[in-house]
Design goal:
The chain is α+β, with helices and mostly antiparallel strands and 369 residues long. The protein has helices at residues 16-44, 56-62, 110-116, 353-365; strands at residues 67-72, 86-90, 96-99, 122-127, 137-139, 152-153, 158-161, 164-167, 169-171, 177-180, 193-199, 211-215, 228-233, 247-251, 256-257, 276-282, 287-294, 301-307, 320-323, 339-348. The strands form three sheets. Strands 2, 3, 4, 5, 6, 10, 12, 13, 14, 15 and 19 form an eleven-stranded antiparallel beta sheet that branches. Strands 1, 9, 11, 16, 17, 18 and 20 form a seven-stranded antiparallel beta sheet that branches. It has a two-stranded antiparallel ribbon with strand order 7-8.
């Protein structure tokens, strides 16, 4: 056997413990990347009809930022979810019915609503939390969670998701939903969080304030940083805006922020398309990011990623959840905004860009039409 070639004299092997550490670190990085790629591949590749692909909250969990609230009137946000999505109440006799999914991880069973509401009007009284934390959203009015608003009509807009019929939560002025979640997992104080929603760029106005996210438990404007919510509207809070929107902004209380200051953010852009993905994440002490995209195709656009506005560090989140109105609503006053909600979730922790990209890919694959 020929002799083994000699190593160059300058090569000195690292100690074995260093080699093991490097190997472990590399292996962990590969595993994390492989997990995300595997989940994304599952979303984009056809599988057995009986097996639902990973949903947005499965993807957030894989990225170590699990959902603490997950809401939708159109589909399950977990592959295994097989519970109710929302509740409707009909005007003829005030009877209620929960509307679930056609199968675990699937789309809404709109046929149940159509049958229950035939010949009468129905409103959506509750939007159920799929995360298991019990953060169900009730309308802000008598018979709901208290307040001066009313429940949204259940049949204002139908659409197709995943090839099946579904209904949106179609918010008009005097409709809004709320939940005090500060004891049921919703981040408080300066704890990091993320969130997304799928909304519409064709049913909007400039009224205050079409929000989804973290809000005051007091339902009062309690100062800078008391809120951390996505706003999607034509509202130009501080003036100087370019165009007429609608825009993805951050409602941090005492203002809708297009970026890191009260000045207009030149990287902002309008999303007037039918279906829009909007995201917000905030580490609670120094940084937040806003993104938007077409919910039917393509990737997210980063609109802002940088420092919190002056006076907002640290954040002082209270842990309620708002949908359809601002934080100082709707006890003694009413919501002025219009907007559409299809799905959304709030996470514990600051989601990575890779996780948000995977969630957007899932939304695009869901087949909003």
């Amino acid at each position: 056997m020929p002799p083994r070639p000699a190593l160059p004299f300058s090569f000195i092997p690292p100690p074995s413990h260093e080699r093991r550490a490097r190997h472990s670190a590399a292996k962990a990085a590969v595993c994390a990347a492989t997990l995300l790629l595997t989940l994304l591949a599952a979303l984009l590749s056809p599988g057995p009809a009986s097996a639902a692909a990973a949903g947005p909250c499965d993807l957030y969990a894989a990225g170590r930022t699990p959902c603490v609230a997950a809401h939708s009137t159109v589909r399950a946000l977990y592959a295994s979810y097989n519970g109710p999505l929302y509740q409707v109440r009909r005007s003829s006799d005030n009877a209620t019915r929960n509307i679930g999914v056609v199968a675990a991880g699937g789309v809404a069973n709109a046929a149940v609503q159509d049958s229950f509401c035939a010949g009468t009007d129905c409103v959506i009284t509750w939007v159920y939390d799929q995360s298991g934390h019990g953060n169900n959203l009730g309308y802000q009015g008598p018979g709901g969670v208290g307040g001066s608003d009313t429940a949204a009509k259940a049949t204002s807009e139908s659409l197709t998701v995943g090839g099946g019929k579904a209904y949106s939560l179609h918010i008009n002025p005097r409709n809004s939903y709320w939940r005090d979640g500060h004891l049921t997992g919703v981040p408080t104080g300066s704890a990091p969080e993320g969130m997304y929603m799928v909304t519409s760029g064709t049913h909007v106005n400039s009224g205050c304030c079409f929000d989804y996210g973290n809000s005051e438990t007091t339902r009062k404007a309690d100062g800078p940083g008391a809120m951390d919510a996505i706003n999607f509207s034509r509202s130009c809070w501080f003036g100087g805006c370019s165009g007429s929107g609608p825009w993805v902004q951050a409602d941090l209380e005492y203002g809708l922020y297009p970026g890191g200051s009260t000045s207009w953010n030149p990287n902002q852009r309008a999303f007037p398309v039918k279906f829009v993905t909007a995201t917000l994440k905030n580490n609670g002490t120094s940084r937040f990011a806003i993104k938007g995209g077409n919910a039917q195709s393509g990737s997210l656009t980063t609109l802002y990623d940088g420092s919190l506005p002056r006076g907002y560090s640290p954040m002082k989140k209270q842990g309620a959840i708002i949908l359809g109105s601002g934080g100082d609503c709707c006890i003694g006053n009413t919501n002025l905004s219009a907007g559409t909600f299809y799905e959304g979730a709030i996470t514990s922790g600051y989601p990575s860009d890779a996780t948000e990209n995977a969630v957007q890919a899932d939304i695009a694959a869901a087949g909003y039409r």
